[in-house]
Design goal:
Layout: E1 10-12, E2 17-20, E3 23-26, H1 38-50, H2 57-64, H3 71-88, E4 91-99, E5 101-102, E6 125-126, H4 129-141, E7 146-150, H5 157-170, E8 176-180, H6 186-195, E9 199-201, H7 216-227, E10 232-234, E11 237-240, H8 246-258, E12 261-268, H9 285-299, E13 305-309, H10 313-317, E14 322-329, E15 336-337, H11 346-355, E16 359-360
Parallel strand pairs: 4-7, 4-14, 4-16, 7-8, 8-9, 9-10, 10-12, 11-12, 12-13, 13-14
Antiparallel strand pairs: 1-2, 2-3, 5-6, 14-15
Helix pairs in contact: 1-3, 1-9, 2-8, 3-9, 4-5, 5-6
């Protein structure tokens, strides 16, 4: 196993170069990327991440251009994992998610099983407040750091506010409530925060407006409202398919950093039968892990938590420190999940963390498990 040189090995020169273990790397912004090998590029990216610097677009694209099946990709993954150890204190956490309403959605996003046009939902249903509280209580007792209320686009906002307040009263613990819902403005963002939510999951998705029926500017308006509120932003590059270019991936990632995301990473698209992406190729695990590794290096200390979804052992070894355990209405499934999606539960998540060398962290510093 490689150990890529860290900041203790660096020697600065007056001309703007950094020497790491005898390898000189020019870290000046104006350097042309094409002059350097992938090894130098990876070392420079690691150095910037540890120094609290964000990567520029050209460097991100260059890292994404690495062949995911090559030895260079392995080196990229090792560098990202080393950065994760420093940035996170070598701690990993679970993002638990509950799909509240299993209902047809008129927005008809091409990758989502809820699209009314696809006709996959034959019997609509909705989790009761009591069911949701029970699930959250179980997830929190098992160590979930975040619990997400995921609703369809048109779930009533006032109902969501009431639900958040009831959860806060019913379930004690040092967990964070995440909201993944439709578009909202500044006033609604403040109401979410006042009700007890701490995080919003929201993204400008890949090919927004083409593979979705949403206007990109509306999605960005919601991101702006989150940034101007007390709420934190969680934002993954998603849903990634084989057809997405390195430039598209880089731009979507940078949009999240522009709006202050404190959690990033990547979600691979699941091609579902009956949707427009039925039969399309599935992103390979190593390519998915590579994208996650690049987000780790590109975000550095700015977004210390990096999530991979669906879960991937390779991505955990390449810098991801967050995985998702989800149940209920899942837009990556053609049915309503009564148990954890794909059988990936809290115990399995802990096993992934252990194998990747992380300590399990629930959000309570007194309950960090080595």
């Amino acid at each position: 196993m490689w150990c890529l040189s860290g900041p203790e090995d660096k020697r600065y020169r007056k001309d703007g170069e950094v020497s790491m273990s005898g390898v000189s790397v020019d870290v000046r912004e104006e350097r042309p990327i094409s002059e350097f090998s992938y090894t130098n590029l990876i070392l420079a990216a690691k150095e910037k991440a540890l120094n609290g610097e964000k990567l520029d677009r050209e460097s991100i694209i260059a890292l994404l251009e690495i062949d995911s099946d090559s030895i260079n990709a392995d080196m990229l993954g090792i560098a990202a994992r080393e950065v994760a150890e420093v940035v996170t204190g070598n701690m990993a956490s679970v993002w638990a998610s509950i799909g509240v309403d299993y209902k047809n959605c008129a927005m008809n996003c091409d990758f989502c099983s809820f699209g009314k046009k696809w006709g996959l939902i034959e019997q609509e249903s909705e989790r009761s407040t009591e069911e949701i509280i029970g699930l959250i209580d179980r997830f929190v007792s098992q160590g979930a750091r975040w619990v997400t209320l995921r609703t369809t686009q048109f779930y009533g906002f006032d109902r969501l506010i009431r639900l958040i307040k009831e959860i806060r009263l019913a379930v004690p613990g040092n967990y964070e409530i995440v909201v993944n819902t439709g578009e909202f403005d500044d006033e609604k963002a403040r109401r979410l925060a006042n009700a007890g939510a701490q995080v919003v999951y929201h993204t400008l998705r890949l090919r927004e407006g083409k593979d979705t029926r949403f206007r990109p500017e509306d999605r960005i308006d919601t991101l702006r409202s989150v940034r101007e509120s007390p709420l934190n932003l969680a934002y993954l590059v998603e849903p990634v398919g084989m057809e997405h270019s390195n430039e598209e991936i880089a731009d979507i990632f940078l949009k999240g950093m522009e709006y202050g995301a404190i959690l990033s990473g990547a979600m691979a698209r699941v091609p579902l039968p009956g949707t427009p992406f039925s039969g399309s190729g599935q992103l390979s695990e190593r390519r998915h892990a590579q994208i996650v590794a690049v987000t780790r290096l590109a975000a550095g200390h700015h977004a210390p938590d990096i999530c991979v979804h669906p879960p991937s052992r390779v991505a955990m070894e390449w810098g991801a420190n967050v995985v998702v355990v989800e149940t209920g209405a899942v837009p990556r499934d053609t049915g309503n999940c009564e148990c954890e999606w794909n059988g990936f539960d809290m115990a399995t998540a802990r096993d992934y963390f252990k194998n990747a060398g992380y300590a399990f962290y629930s959000g309570d510093e007194n309950e960090c498990e080595k």
